[in-house]
Design goal:
By secondary structure, the chain is α+β, with helices and mostly antiparallel strands. It has 2 domains: about 1-35, no CATH class; about 50-100, no CATH class. It is about 25% helix and about 10% strand. It has 1 helix and 4 strands. A two-stranded antiparallel sheet has the order 1-2. Strands 3-4 form a two-stranded antiparallel sheet. The mean pLDDT is about 80.
């Protein structure tokens, strides 16, 4: 099998299902998708894994992070900081709408 970019030969072996040449170390055949080998313990690293059912999403409505060790993985803020910021912006919005309605009345 040759690299499509540099034309160097890539070592490999034939797929047991379709016979196409598959690069060494590949887990699946690029032609037919056949699984080529046994999964090993090295394939899974549970040390950094977290339970998807128990994750806590960032309470900021625009952030896509999750809370890990008390802080969001994306924005870096704590849930308390986000709550406080939300309360402050809600107060500012209320003040602005009150000012606008007062100006319209006058």
């Amino acid at each position: 099998m040759k690299c499509p970019h540099c034309e160097k030969e890539i070592p490999g072996s034939p797929c047991a299902e379709c016979g196409m040449l598959v690069p060494e170390g590949a887990k699946y055949c690029m032609e037919c998708g056949y699984f080529l080998g046994q999964e090993t313990d090295e394939d899974y690293d549970d040390g950094d894994a977290f339970d998807l059912e128990k994750r806590v999403l960032c309470p900021d409505g625009t952030c896509t992070g999750i809370i890990v060790n008390g802080r969001c993985t994306e924005c870096g803020r704590t849930p308390e900081e986000i709550r406080k910021s939300s309360e402050e912006s809600a107060e500012e919005s209320t003040d602005e709408s009150t000012e606008q309605s007062t100006e319209k009345s006058a």
